[in-house]
Amino acid sequence: MPKKKKRATKGEAAAIGIIGGSGLYSMPGLTDAREVRVKTPFGDPSDAFVIGTLEGRRVAFLARHGRGHRFSPSEINYRANICAMKMLGATQIISASAVGSLREDLRPLDFLIPSQFFDRTRLRVATFFGGGIVAHVGFDKPTCTRLSEHLAAACDRTGVNVHRGGVYVCMEGPQFSTMAESHTYRQLRFDVIGMTNLTEAKLAREAELCYAAFAMITDYDCWHPQHDAVTLDEIIRNLGKNAENVQRAIRETVRGLSESRDCECGSALAHAILTDRKVIPAATKKRLAPIIGKYIS
């Protein structure tokens, strides 16, 4: 990891953002890398960004929980993280996170590329809007279909067992599920459970960024009869192996990812802002400039 740090300048640009979750606190293989601190209208991101070249493309990497895993899922400043990605020029975000499996056939070390989310969070701000401006973005398809297929295809090419599509139930945490909750999620036919990706996906849609995620299965949730037999050492080993696999899959994704976007993510706000432009407070316009600048001067 590079030691040199600096503040972000207008010359910084990285079209691809990478967010690393539990077990992925750095991105090996980056060249010409440097750390950049980004100040946003929503506060500080989780850590410094590492901007560098990966497979010939400029990328910005962020450790979601901060290096050393300092922030719980409820403490992460998701708005700052996503806003900073936008400010650095990202148009597409590749996310990686550890999840538990709610199905017997979704095994530890498998990856799932979620196509749907179910929200069980309670304590988070999951919108950039408010303070005198109202916007309602479409979220029926919460991940970018085009980018998700790139992630899945990269898994195929790198030998990672991948499942295309599925429901990620996002709980608040930091505690894991009760047995009753876990069995209920299975009855509802959810596929994996985690604590972070939904909040990112909501904000990425408002920021008009493509968003897709590698959900990396570490173990079965507590519904599984063998759950109590799983040791911490096993989980840590699975985190390490998943980190190795996702690094390969990310590099492969970046290698084949086009800068052009034929999806609707880049125009999510086109008809979403309902507030009369004349009554939006000046301070709100200023705060939201990185997000809505092209629609409101």
In short:
The protein is α/β, with parallel strands linked by helices. Helix content is 26%, strand content 23%. Strands 1, 2, 3, 4, 5, 6, 7, 8, 9, 10, 11 and 12 form a twelve-stranded mixed β-sheet that branches.
Largest sheet: 12 strands, mixed
Question: What is the helix content?
Answer: 25-40%
**Average predicted confidence as pLDDT:** 94
Head-to-tail CA distance between termini: 39 Å
Number of helices: 7
Series of secondary-structure elements, N-terminal to C-terminal: EEEEEHEEEHEEHEHEHHH
Strand content: 15-25%
Anisotropy-based shape? globular
Radius of gyration: 19 Å
Tally the beta strands.
Answer: 12
Question: Structural class, from secondary structure content?
Answer: alpha/beta
pLDDT < 50 runs, ≥5 residues:
none
Describe the structure.
The structure is a single chain. This protein has seven helices and twelve strands. By secondary structure, the chain is an alpha/beta fold. Strands 1, 2, 3, 4, 5, 6, 7, 8, 9, 10, 11 and 12 form a twelve-stranded mixed β-sheet that branches. β4 and β5 (57-63) form a beta hairpin. α1 packs across α4 and α2 crosses α5. The relative contact order is 0.19. The model has no long low-confidence stretch (mean pLDDT 94).
